[in-house]
């Protein structure tokens, strides 16, 4: 072959490079299937009688994919309309789509045609982008900073994706003891959307104070329910998978930021680690709102701290992300919105004269408040107080009184000296299982702070790697500013957590973004140091951090399922294959089919007192209230009521049955407080002669109101 001939090795290299995406995608898919098998089966060997569950998992995922695709492709389209590209295009576009669905639910109402229509508009915009790209012969869709997501190091995060998928396919109420078995999901995150869907609109719910929180994700869940034909219970897995999918956006956001400072491989490691953090698995697989906050924080940080110089479009995008994050969870105002706004101003002042920083900053603030305005206007219309149930002493208590507002405030803030608060950093953050700490001591039992893992105070491998990365980045001139940003963001998030919360470990989940960026920087710093011909120090660090996180997440996932009773009276942790697709639940699962009240005759009306654990699964007409609202039975107990008078008052309102949670009433009185006249002792005295449906010795009993 002459020297003029094209060099074959280069051609071969080009062909190999073109095949690289397909090879990595195929390897990732096979690795995902293998990980799903292990997580679902509880090991490598197949569990007996698990085939139906595995098929059920596959059906759930396949049925959910079209709706998930509609949302995410639609989001990409709206992001294109705002002239964003890559990860930012999807993240900012999703903020827009969520806001549009929220506004539609409040102003117009919830209907499948509306929810589908908004998604279709976004998809149409994406099609326009594809057509433009083809006509200009510029493959914009593939040009996301050389597609850093193609690195084989993304395979490190696949076990986390498998855990998210399997756990999200378990019914709410069957997973995560550390989160009270998803109590918040069945009592308000999905219960409120269920009531909004029934009303066909976002309406005021005086009996559930959580309906007055912004509710961006609750509105999204209502939209998803309407897209599935208005079937709330049949949409639970879809809602959980939708929330879990934001973990992928968070991982991509972290990698996108890192790609401006380190190699593709190191960026992929930082992104993959997001998917392995136990708290991400726990919160991400539930129909919560945490992953939206984490995802928008990651995308926002990639926009303001990445390689591109901020401009007016950046200010617009940060305002949308900050506003949407706060609309998803109010605490994001302090953990996401303020940090992103501060970093944006810092970056603008760093790169340009002061006069050129005004327009992007003002645009960010205006757009952020505009995103919040539907929530503020809604609450003002409902209660006269735009931020109810907060600031009652200034803006009014609405249907509450001062004592009830004080009880709400006391429940959401621990009265502790700052010294004791600072000491909680070790057990709730650094040495917490939720952040991958290994080992530790058994956790003491509490009645109020029940959101604690079985062990605390372990070796903080993840935190140590992240902090080492921030320190190393601070030494290097190229990454010094990013290190300062990460340090300031972390300190700010901890100051908020220590001073304004009741110190739940979960509330620090947004710190995962700077932690994973810091770890990615450490891997990048050591990536060039070869320990052998094929092993680098950075790769070793990636494995040394990723493996403990994977083990901690897997142990947490397998050990945090519901407890089942055996024939000999023992309690055992249910295997995941037993829980997956478990809505038609066997006895003891505390889901829809295990509730005696769902077998009541047509026309029954149940008053729920004390235990709201299974609200979402209750099929008859019910009257209930959140733990902070006036109990529906409080007015019926006014005065020195007799058993006969109580029966008369209940029957006058059409109440045929009473669902009474004795133990939960006792717990609430001992912790957050409850209506003074509603105690288990008094209620037991009044209803002791009533007929029980089911076991009269259960913690929660169902009784027939006498004729």
From TrEMBL:
Please state what the protein is called. Dolichyl-phosphate-mannose-protein mannosyltransferase
InterPro entries to which the protein is assigned, alphabetical: LipidA_mod_glycosyltrf_83
Among the entry's GO cellular component annotations, what is one? plasma membrane
GO-annotated biological processes: lipopolysaccharide biosynthetic process
The GO molecular function terms of this record are: pentosyltransferase activity
Organism, per UniProt? Algisphaera agarilytica
Is Cell membrane among this UniProt entry's keywords? yes
Q: Which locations, inside or outside the cell, does it occupy?
A: Cell membrane
Bilayer topology term: Multi-pass membrane protein
UniProt entry tagged with the keyword rRNA processing: no
Q: Which residues cross the membrane?
A: 21-40, 52-74, 86-104, 110-132, 153-174, 235-258, 270-298, 318-346, 358-377, 457-474, 481-499, 505-523, 535-558
Q: Which UniProt keywords apply?
A: Cell membrane, Glycosyltransferase, Membrane, Transferase, Transmembrane, Transmembrane helix
Q: Which taxonomic lineage does the organism of this UniProt entry have?
A: Bacteria, Pseudomonadati, Planctomycetota, Phycisphaerae, Phycisphaerales
């Amino acid at each position: 072959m002459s020297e003029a001939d094209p060099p074959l090795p280069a051609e071969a290299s080009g062909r190999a490079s073109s095949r690289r995406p397909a090879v990595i995608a195929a390897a990732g898919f096979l690795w995902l299937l293998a990980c799903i098998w292990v997580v679902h089966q509880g090991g490598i060997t197949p569990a007996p009688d698990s085939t139906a569950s595995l098929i059920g998992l596959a059906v759930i995922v396949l049925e959910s994919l079209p709706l998930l695709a509609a949302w995410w492709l639609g989001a990409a389209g709206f992001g294109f309309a705002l002239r964003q590209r890559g990860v930012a295009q999807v993240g900012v576009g999703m903020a827009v789509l969520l806001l549009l669905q929220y506004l539609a639910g409040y102003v117009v109402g919830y209907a499948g045609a509306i929810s589908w229509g908004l998604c279709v508009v976004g998809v149409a915009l994406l099609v326009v982008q594809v057509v433009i790209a083809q006509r200009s012969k510029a493959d914009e869709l593939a040009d996301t900073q050389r597609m850093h997501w193609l690195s084989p190091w993304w395979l490190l995060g696949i076990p986390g994706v498998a855990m998210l998928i399997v756990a999200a396919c378990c019914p709410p109420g069957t997973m995560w003891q550390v989160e009270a078995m998803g109590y918040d999901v069945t009592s308000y995150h999905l219960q409120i959307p269920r009531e909004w869907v029934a009303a066909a609109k976002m309406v005021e719910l005086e009996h559930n104070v959580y309906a007055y929180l912004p509710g961006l994700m609750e509105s999204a869940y209502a939209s998803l329910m309407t897209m599935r034909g208005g079937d709330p219970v049949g949409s639970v897995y879809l809602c959980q998978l939708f929330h879990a999918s934001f973990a992928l956006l968070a991982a991509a956001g972290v990698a996108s930021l890192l790609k401006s400072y380190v190699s593709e491989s190191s960026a992929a490691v930082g992104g993959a680690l997001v998917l392995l953090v136990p708290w991400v698995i726990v919160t991400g697989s539930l129909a919560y709102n945490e992953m939206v906050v984490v995802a928008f924080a990651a995308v926002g940080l990639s926009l303001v701290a990445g390689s591109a110089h901020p401009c007016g479009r950046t200010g617009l995008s940060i305002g949308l992300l900050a506003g949407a994050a706060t609309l998803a969870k109010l605490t994001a105002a302090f953990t996401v919105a303020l940090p992103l706004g501060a970093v944006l101003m810092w970056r603008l002042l760093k790169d340009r004269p002061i006069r050129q920083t005004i327009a992007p900053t003002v645009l960010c603030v205006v757009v952020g408040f505009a995103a919040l305005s539907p929530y503020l206007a809604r609450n003002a219309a409902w209660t006269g107080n735009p931020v109810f149930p907060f600031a009652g002493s200034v803006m009014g208590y609405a249907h509450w009184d001062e004592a009830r507002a004080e009880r709400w405030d006391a429940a959401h803030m621990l009265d502790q000296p700052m010294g004791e608060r600072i000491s909680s950093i070790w057990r709730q953050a650094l040495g917490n299982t939720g952040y991958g700490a290994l080992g530790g001591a058994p956790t003491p039992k509490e009645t109020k702070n029940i959101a604690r893992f079985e062990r605390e105070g372990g070796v903080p491998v993840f935190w140590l790697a992240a902090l080492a990365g921030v320190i190393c980045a601070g030494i290097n001139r190229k990454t010094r500013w990013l290190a300062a940003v990460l340090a300031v963001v972390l300190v700010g998030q901890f100051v908020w957590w220590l001073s304004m919360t009741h110190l739940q470990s979960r509330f620090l989940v947004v710190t995962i973004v700077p932690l994973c960026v810091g770890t990615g920087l450490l891997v990048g710093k050591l990536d060039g140091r070869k320990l052998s011909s094929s092993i680098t120090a950075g790769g070793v660090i990636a494995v040394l951090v990723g493996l403990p996180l994977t083990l901690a997440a897997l142990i947490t996932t397998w050990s945090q399922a519901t407890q089942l009773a055996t024939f000999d009276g023992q309690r055992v942790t249910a295997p995941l294959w037993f829980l997956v697709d478990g809505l038609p639940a066997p006895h003891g699962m505390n889901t829809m089919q295990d509730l005696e009240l769902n077998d009541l005759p047509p026309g029954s009306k149940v008053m729920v007192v004390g235990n709201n654990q299974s609200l979402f699964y209750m099929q008859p007409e019910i009257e209930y209230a959140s733990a902070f609202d006036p109990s529906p039975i409080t007015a019926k107990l006014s005065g020195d009521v007799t058993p006969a008078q109580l029966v008369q008052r209940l029957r006058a309102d059409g109440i045929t049955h009473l669902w009474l949670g004795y133990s939960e009433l006792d717990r609430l009185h001992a912790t957050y407080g409850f209506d003074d006249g509603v105690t288990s002792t008094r209620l037991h005295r009044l209803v002791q002669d009533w007929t029980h449906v089911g076991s009269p010795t259960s913690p929660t009993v169902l009784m027939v109101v006498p004729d």
